[in-house]
Amino acid sequence: MATRDRSAADQGRPLRRLVIVESPTKARKIAPYLGRNYTVEASVGHIRDLPRGAADVPAKYKGQSWARLGVDVDNDFEPIYVVSPDKKAKVAELKSLLADADELYLATDPDREGEAIAWHLLETLKPKVPVRRMVFHEITEPAILAAAADTRELDPDLVDAQETRRILDRLYGYEVSPVLWKKVMPKLSAGRVQSVATRVIVQRERERMAFRSAEYWDIAAKLDAGTGEQTDSANPRTFGARLVTVDGNRVASGRDFGSDGRLKGADRVSADTLAPPSPQSANGVIVLDETRARRLAEALDGVDLAVTSAESKPYSRKPYPPFMTSTLQQEAGRKLRFTSDRTMRVAQRLYENGYITYMRTDSTTLSESAIAAARAQATQLYGAEYVHPTPRQYARKVKNAQEAHEAIRPAGDTFATPGQLHSRLDNDEFRLYELIWQRTVASQMADARGTTLTLRITGVAGTGEECVFSASGRTITFAGFLKAYVESVDEEAGGQSDDAESRLPALQEGQNVTAVELNPDGHSTNPPARYTEASLIKALEELGIGRPSTYSSIIKTILDRGYVYKRGSALVPSWVAFAVIGLLEAYFGRLVDFDFTAGMEDDLDAIAGGRERRGNWLSSFYFGGDSGAEGSVARSGGLKKMVGGQLDDIDARAVNSIKLFTDDEGRDVVVRVGRFGPYLERLVADPDDPDGDPISQRANLPDDLPPDELTAEVAEKLFATPQEGRRLGVDPETGHEIVAKEGRFGPYVTEILPEPEPEPEGTKKTAAAKKAAAPKPRTGSLFKSMDLSTVTLEDALKLLSLPRVVGVDPVSGEEITAQNGRYGPYLKKGTDSRSLASEDQIFSVTLDEALKIYAEPKRRGGQSASTAPLRELGADPVSGKPMVIKDGRFGPYVTDGETNASLRKGDEVESITDERAAELLADRRARGPVKKTAKKTTAKKTTAKKTAAKKTTAKKTPAKTTAAKKTAAKKTTAAKASATKAAAEKTAAKKSPAKKASANSSAETS
């Protein structure tokens, strides 16, 4: 190291430093700040990891019993790291650049993951020059220069903590996932946090399935104070109130009922013989039914009402803390309709381009310079009276919070306003930056102040009951921080926004009021709301499960694995998730226990703090030991014993059977999770042998039917069309029986073909050959206007006759057919398809009409210009153009005339909101234009080559280039390094050390 330093000094030149970051964007942004003596290059995320499969395991380890894990569990849990094939060229490039450097700066992200990436770079590159760890939380010139001047050593405790997490997740996944493959279905996965997150969602669905709604009534009154003007908003004359007590007994509201539909505290009865609650039940709470509510309303008509209580209290509300990762994801989900993944992608771009501080943090603290910037901006924009007298700091009362990090805020010592950045940011970036900026500035502003007023109005009904009405109001007298920012309220949970006002007239005790209206009002209790991404993140955070930086990837994993799907913004668990969670709860309960998983985070933080040795902890977890609480994985013998000892005890049929309820005849109705999807089953009497053993009755389950909507009534409807189908009759032409069935993708009709004749003895055919030779039955999807229970043989035969030949195009000679597809009726001519306006057109469209349709220009998505939209929505916030839902060849989609986006699973044409439609369009724009087909690309390349050949006289040069490309794979690593070195020198000469990184921008993973 010293030799290299002296060499540079002796030559009288400044030190050449290689700076390695994760992403090309980051490299491009940092390079100009550091100057010509720094070469900034991107590693493009991790350069090495544990082996992804058996093929990646180095040959010398393949015979070891632990090789499949990629972790040497017999040698202090030493991980086996391999450089992934797609990173070998990058490693060679970095080594080449390092050969010309006097110092190496590892400038990866400032969290555990970034520390681990830096350590892997150090281990792989094996530098012989001084190495420095460069840490910064924002990408601005002062921050980068300060970080380069004040470096530190790599933190081994942080590396240990991240490595322990990686090893733990590998052991958990590779030991538990094979159990799911064997007992549920292939290609499933289990994970330390993903399985617990799935359990949270499944438990909520179980609560919804067990929920029983209760009905209750009250009286909504419109009262006249008799003072003031009706148009005076500060002192309104009329106001609303609700009946709250009758003869001293509180009138029941929704919170008084349990999930079983009964009043809390009332005498319980058997779930099978639930009776409605008595008019007056537990704890002085009265439940009004419709009859009594109407009778009371009539008896109160015209009676004298007086104010018996007027209680006024001061109101104040403190600002919200600045954003950390989890609260940013939640608020962006509520206010901007962003998914957590979309939020993090946009935040990553804002950070890497120098607009915000590091976006993966669980701290709400602000630096002194940030507080000063926020206070200055609040003073400038809103006035000194709106700024809190002293700087506000928000320390979290959470033991695992990393307070060394800063909250997410605008970058720099002075904040750019959203207006100043409007022309530099795309729409998503602007909206998210504005959210972060508003929240940061608001955090240093004064409290909102006001008053709350609660009125009690009493009167005696004509039937003698003393009835009390209540009205509550809130008036904000000083907006304070609400001038800058108001947090959104979760729609599913309900609640009142912090800036909402409801004014009441200034009434005093004893004043009389008049009832203008008395309306009996019926209500019913609702099941707990399904989780959205925002509310799931909040729940996981409250449980202490996972880390803010992982929530986005956790949600993406459970969606991609099919454990959960979206219905609108709600997260709905699949039946596979029910089976998996049921198995884990029954046999590996500690692994999905909320407290145990949260406790594991404490242990991992202890490793990060150097208070616990990684090897000891992993050994106890995997092999068993005395550490941990009673009943922990370690004290239960360890993960290896837990899995190996219980595998044979797991009854696959039992874990894949989810009992729903008992039908009217006392038969259990269950959902079975099979290899080809879930289905409904119960045991019924055999019609051919009523006294014998019962037989199985099965019915298919539609993919889009949420578990809580599978009621007894729905089940009976599905059983009415069993798996073998409803027999409709015999096709007079073929003699084949025609049946109507319910399939995974909707109802359809098909024919039952006779069994094929047995093969002559001695004839051998492969299974594939037999399958290819077997005739396929005709099938046809039911029209949307048809119902499975009423479809007739005549209808079925018409469907099976499709496609219908309409005629032949006289110009091209191609046949035109009318067909019914999964997403509706259409015409087909060769590879050109056009949608039809209605299903009836399939049988009525003529050749002339078809030719007219084909004569029109083809619309994007194959939509005919004459087809009316399925639904009209509002204007898209990006393009400003009206959005509509149309029915295309591949199903319904939303369009603003410029961008088309297919509706996804769970999106309903009838219920999709403007916000959801705009989100789908934004996601589609973010993915860029549709790529051309390979065929067209090839054609273009061929043309280009021919043109080049005609124009170029020196044909040898392109030939040499081609030859070089073909033989590149044969070149040695040294040759590659040499080429890379030359390229690096050339790049450095141009003072753009990060330009090469732009080629990898699509692979950013930091």
Defining key terms:
20% strand; 29 helices; single chain; disordered C terminus; 1006 residues; 4-stranded parallel β-sheet
Percent in strands: 15-25%
Structural class: alpha+beta
Per the principal axes of the C-alpha atoms, what is the gross shape? globular
The termini sit apart by 30 Å
How many beta-strand runs?
A: 34
Q: Pick out the low-confidence regions.
A: 1-6, 267-281, 861-866, 931-1006
Helix percentage: 25-40%
Q: How confident overall, as mean pLDDT?
A: 83
Rg for CA atoms:
35 Å
Spatial ordering of strands, largest sheet: 9-10-15-14-13-16
Number of helices: 29
Main beta sheet, described? 6 strands, antiparallel, barrel
Summed up:
Helix content is 34%, strand content 20%. By secondary structure, the chain is an alpha+beta fold. The chain is globular and about 100 Å long.
Question: What secondary-structure arrangement, pairings included, does this model have?
Answer:
Blueprint: H1 2-10, E1 17-21, H2 24-34, E2 38-42, E3 48-49, E4 71-72, E5 78-79, E6 82-83, H3 88-99, E7 103-106, H4 112-125, E8 131-133, H5 141-149, H6 156-183, H7 194-210, E9 215-224, E10 238-246, E11 249-251, E12 285-286, H8 290-300, E13 305-317, H9 325-336, H10 340-352, H11 368-382, H12 418-421, H13 427-442, E14 448-460, E15 466-478, E16 512-524, H14 533-543, H15 551-560, E17 564-567, E18 570-573, H16 575-587, H17 594-608, H18 614-623, H19 639-646, H20 652-655, E19 657-662, E20 668-674, E21 677-684, E22 695-700, H21 712-719, E23 726-730, E24 737-743, E25 746-752, H22 767-773, E26 779-781, H23 793-800, E27 804-808, E28 815-821, E29 824-829, E30 832-835, H24 841-844, H25 847-855, E31 871-875, E32 882-888, E33 891-895, E34 900-902, H26 914-926, H27 934-951, H28 956-967, H29 973-989
Helix pairs in contact: 3-29, 4-6, 6-17, 7-15, 9-14, 10-13
